[in-house]
Amino acid sequence: MPVATMTSKGQITVPKEVRDDLHLTAGSKVLFVKLRSGHYRIVPRTGKVQDLGGMLYDPNEPPMTIHEIEDAIAEGGAASGMTGIE
């Protein structure tokens, strides 16, 4: 199991095995998500602008209702494994 040590300045070097698994490179962002249990989940933010292409406005589609938007957000969070977040 990979282990890291925090420096006196609060910095941690992410072990190579973890960087490889999460596809982290220099400049990558990570999100620290606090779970209800008090533990944290580290979520890589390695997406590209091109990944947002499917989320753009489509004039051929009717607008979503607020309930459809809320359902889509809940489904997306569940699909990403971020269940149980406060």
Model description:
The chain has 86 residues and is an alpha+beta fold. It has one domain. It is built from 2 helices and 2 strands. It has helices spanning 16-22, 66-79, and strands at residues 29-34, 40-45. Strands 1-2 form a two-stranded antiparallel sheet. A hairpin with a 5-residue loop joins strand 1 (29-34) and strand 2. The radius of gyration is 17 Å and the shape is elongated. The two termini are 27 Å apart.
Please write out the topology.
Elements: H1 16-22, E1 29-34, E2 40-45, H2 66-79
Antiparallel strand pairs: 1-2
Give keywords:
86 residues, alpha+beta, two-stranded antiparallel ribbon
Low-confidence stretches: none
Write down the secondary-structure element order.
HEEH
Q: Order of strands side by side in the largest beta sheet?
A: 1-2
Number of domains: 1
Integer-rounded radius of gyration: 17 Å
Number of strands: 2
Average of the residue pLDDT scores: 82
How far apart the termini lie comes to 27 Å
Put simply, the count of helices is: 2
Question: Could you give a short account of the major beta sheet?
Answer: 2 strands, antiparallel
Could you say which overall geometry the principal axes of the C-alpha atoms support?
A: elongated
Helix amount: 10-25%
Strand content: 5-15%
Secondary-structure class: alpha+beta
